[in-house]
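Hey, I'm writing a tutorial for new members on how sequence and structure tokens pair up, and I'd like a real worked example in the thread rather than a made-up one. If someone can provide the structure for the chain below, I'll link this post from the tutorial.
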Amino acid sequence: MDRQKKNRPLAVVAMSGGVDSSLAAFLLKEQGYQVVGISMKLWDFKEVGGDPHPDGRCCSVEALNDARAICEKMGIPHYVIDFKDDFKKTVILNFVEEYEKGRTPNPCIVCNTEIKWRCLWEKAKALGAEFLATGHYARIKYDEKAKKFLLRKGVDPTRDQSYALWGLSQENLSRTIFPLGELTKREVRAKAKEHKLKVAEKMESQEICFVADDDYPRFIKEWLDKQGQGLALSEVEGLVLSEVEGSRACPERSRRARGQGGKIRRGPIFNLKGEKIGEHKGIPFYTIGQRRGLSIALGKPLYVIRIEPDKNAIYVGEDNDLFRSTFTVSHLNWIAFDDLEKERECRIKIRYQHQPQEGRISSLTKNEVMVKFKKSERAITPGQSAVFYQDDVVLGGGIINRVVNDWSAD
């Protein structure tokens, strides 16, 4: 390696085979970095079941081949690293266990903190990399006054991904580059097309990568069947886990803690008066805001309002019953400051597609805060992430733990 090249900083780019990570690698090389592309093998179709999805989502053979072809075109090294065991232990098991506990996880956030910025970063450092880069639409800026790296929204409001990155530490942020943070999606595709990247027009999946057919009940049922805990497939056919847009939030690292004694059981569906009006097929197959799959005909739409795994019970009501204003958030990670020392007004986002709304946060303990929206919001869901913003800066985030209800089902 010549001296000039050796003195250039080395950046590892997480390459999924899509247009975003491909252009991120191209831009870094254009800016003078040494670039190495790494694709992560996280799961196999034979393990997660379902029919292979035609869009070539991450970890598929098509996606890995696209990433390799892009790297060859740019003349940079490309490696595929097997993280399947880590992914299973920290992402997939957590995904299933959270649903077992009546919570609604977002595995993408767990994947970011535990796989990309832990497992992948360790591999990147072993290669001598100074930076890890991804195709996320977000920005990082060092604040001289606060002496901290700040995470900021991407400039494209339709693509901003800062919500999924609230778990990053100061060390993570200091070694991370987001080459697309100042670009819109339209600009990304235009630049990729200009430079004749074969993935310029490639469509992207909005669903969770390891559920190949987007059938969450099928996935949960089959995964639990492997452990001898499943129901007959006919008992869960037709269920749709959620109609709440972007409702899969992200929990803490996986722990074996089932609220139902390790077995899925049928149980009662109550109205908000505590009257039994039906029977559910198992706690893991429902989430807050769900309408389909309830099998209750009362002449009006009913939605899952509350899930109580300890009682193996589900409570349903009308759409207006989904609106709440107050909830607690735990497993906190502050980015813009060390601790929340006093009550603070900010904007709060509770789902990926949710527009941040005005509210107030105050400390309950070092690891938990109380959040109160100025106006009630629909389907605040335990297990999802709540992220706190001041203008375009991410103050921090955590996991929604408990929603304060103003009705009683006792």
